[in-house]
Amino acid sequence: MAIDRRRFLKVTAAAGAGLALPGGLAMAASKGDAPGTLAVVKGANPAAITRAAVEALGGMGKFVKKGEVVVVKPNIGWDRTPELAANTNPEVVAEVVRMCIEAGARKVKVFDRTCNDPRRCYVQSGIAEALKPLDVELKHIDERRFRKVKIGGRALKEWPLYTEALEADRLINIPIAKHHGLARLTMAIKNWMGLMGGKRSAIHQDLDQALADLMLVIKPDLSVLDAVRILTANGPQGGSLSDVKRLDTVIAGVDQVAVDSYGATLFGLTGSDLGYVTAAEEMGLGASDLSSIMIKEIKL
Length: 300
Description:
By secondary structure, the protein is an alpha/beta fold. 25% of the residues lie in helices and 23% in strands. The protein starts with 8 loop residues before the first strand and ends with a strand.
């Protein structure tokens, strides 16, 4: 049964470095949540709001079990610094990795098939530095590790995908919310292009449907949308601070369609304005109607 959006969980906590929701409160609030539940957390500390968002859904232990191999997939596609909002915020990435380790993951892997030189992207994004203190495997994509996968979609019948992501026990998506010249916005669903081999531009002829088709075989356990800074124009690469807006927000959820639908509202749009969201919903891969979704709003 749909849950009216007016039935928000609203929690206000004092802001402060490293502050997160008390575990007991988060777990109690998450009991019986529907898969479409979203946590939207606002606050000045990127790590703290990331942790609070995951805790509001039941904590990382709900998604990652002891001894599992976890792939964390941020956007590291561009030779841009964090201030330019082209890549996932490094503090958000590091906090998700830290929570996976705390949950008992045997190994955590982080990678992306970048658009610019990966050596520069990993460093300039700030992600390499942020992950240095953590026991995590951060490496560049190995082109030999793509294999053709039968997708059976409407636009994509098969495509080479990265085996390390497909073979992991758990897959966590950590995109950034930003403008995209062709897709209008790039968030959770489009972030999977970073697992595609071959000539990715070939899918641009039917981009929206191709992105929805990818969801048939790439099924993350959790998506954490970084909206600490969003890129409002000239995406996906950006390059000007005038195109960046600071929102100090993180959105977490299991349903990528719901995550992207909420993300669209940050740009004055709705999920129905995004062709890949509409295509995914038509295929039964998620829900875009925010009035039917429980949204937990938390302010730190």
